[in-house]
Write a structure and sequence with these properties.
single chain, 0% helix, 47% strand, globular
Length: 92
C-alpha cells in the first residue's frame, strides 16, 4: 500500500498495489517514479495517487531510480541498466 500523508498526519490518498516495493522512489514533475520488484515502473500522480503509466522491463528491478533530464535510469537483477524516457515512454 502506498500512502500520501501531509505534515498534519492526514491521509491525502492511498493506492493499493499488489506488488513488492523493495526500492526507493523518486519525484519528477509532481509524479512519483516507483519501481517494483517484478520489473515494473509505476508513474503515479503525487497529487491524487492515480497511476499515469506502467512501464514494463524484462527483469526484476533491484535499484532506486536515477533521473537526469527526462530520463530515468534503473538497474535490473541481471545487472543491466535501462534508460526510460519519461516523456515518450520508450525503453532505450
Amino acid at each position: 500500500m502506498l500512502y500520501s500523508i501531509d505534515i498534519g498526519r492526514k491521509v491525502n490518498w492511498k493506492l493499493k498495489l499488489d506488488e513488492n516495493i523493495e526500492s526507493s522512489f523518486k519525484i519528477f514533475n509532481n509524479n512519483i517514479i516507483l519501481p517494483v520488484k517484478k520489473g515494473k515502473i509505476y508513474i503515479i500522480d503525487s497529487r491524487n495517487g492515480s497511476i499515469l503509466k506502467i512501464i514494463n522491463l524484462p527483469a526484476d528491478i533491484v535499484s532506486t531510480p536515477a533521473i537526469k533530464g527526462k530520463k530515468v535510469y534503473i538497474t535490473t537483477l541481471g545487472g543491466r541498466i535501462y534508460s526510460v524516457s519519461l516523456s515518450e515512454d520508450l525503453v532505450l
